[in-house]
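Hi V.,

Quick status before I head out on leave. The structure for the redesign project is tokenized and pasted below; the design run finished overnight.
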């Protein structure tokens, strides 16, 4: 429990750490944004394919793996349909007025962080401390650029820099709660761990394919984003070998 709590805390707070540069800069180019998103996509893909899925399959079978992955992706699909999509670069495209309903933006971002915290908690509950640390690290690396982009968006909406930093940090803090929920449920319910690992893999891959890759390829930076994706993939594989 203590390791899961510490890992989820570090992973969640990476959102705030990633947002710190907002105190010194106000704008970011499309190119840098796409590079960061693609790098995060590579990290999450590696964590799912080389860590979560093999662990789930090793503890169960193909049927359990398939059910978990499909369930994880379906839950994210429902969230995507029910929660308005937040375009951090083009607020004028929001389906609602920011001034009147700014809390909806924060709620949408926060809800998209829920499965990431769950991934960390379930990974620690698997009994493999190394897996838990790796998933916490991968989520943390993905949270850093996300925190920066969220804070940047808020600053561009005339919110104070320190306040934007605080809000961005809080959107990641929800992962601590869901990590503890995932850890507790997986520890108490026998046989739930492989389902949880596969669920986390499905949720993460949905985020990668539906959000990160399309957004990183939408501004004419597909080539550099592809290279960044591969570097993220290699980075996570290297960390797997080290740990």
């Amino acid at each position: 429990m203590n390791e899961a709590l510490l890992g989820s805390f570090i992973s969640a707070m990476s959102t705030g750490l990633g947002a710190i540069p907002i105190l010194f800069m106000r704008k970011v180019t499309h190119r840098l944004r796409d590079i960061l998103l693609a790098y995060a996509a590579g990290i999450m893909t590696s964590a799912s394919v080389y860590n979560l899925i093999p662990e789930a399959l090793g503890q169960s079978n193909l049927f359990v793996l398939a059910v978990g992955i499909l369930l994880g992706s379906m839950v994210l699909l429902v969230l995507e349909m029910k929660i308005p999509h937040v375009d951090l670069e083009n607020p004028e495209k929001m389906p609602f007025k920011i001034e009147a309903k700014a809390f909806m933006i924060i709620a949408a971002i926060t809800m998209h962080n829920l499965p990431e915290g769950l991934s960390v908690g379930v990974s620690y509950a698997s009994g493999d401390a190394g897996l838990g640390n790796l998933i916490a690290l991968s989520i943390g690396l993905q949270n850093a650029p996300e925190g920066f982009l969220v804070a940047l968006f808020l600053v561009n909406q005339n919110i104070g820099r320190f306040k934007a930093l605080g809000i961005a940090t809080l959107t990641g803090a929800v992962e601590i709660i869901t990590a503890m929920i995932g850890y507790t449920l997986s520890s108490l319910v026998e046989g739930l761990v492989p389902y949880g690992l596969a669920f986390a893999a499905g949720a993460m891959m949905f985020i990668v394919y539906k959000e990160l890759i399309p957004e990183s390829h939408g501004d004419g930076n597909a080539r550099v984003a592809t290279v960044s994706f591969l570097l993220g993939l290699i980075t996570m594989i290297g960390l797997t070998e080290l740990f």
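Above is the designed sequence. The two ends are 20 Å apart (CA to CA).

G. will cover questions while I'm gone.

Best,
W.
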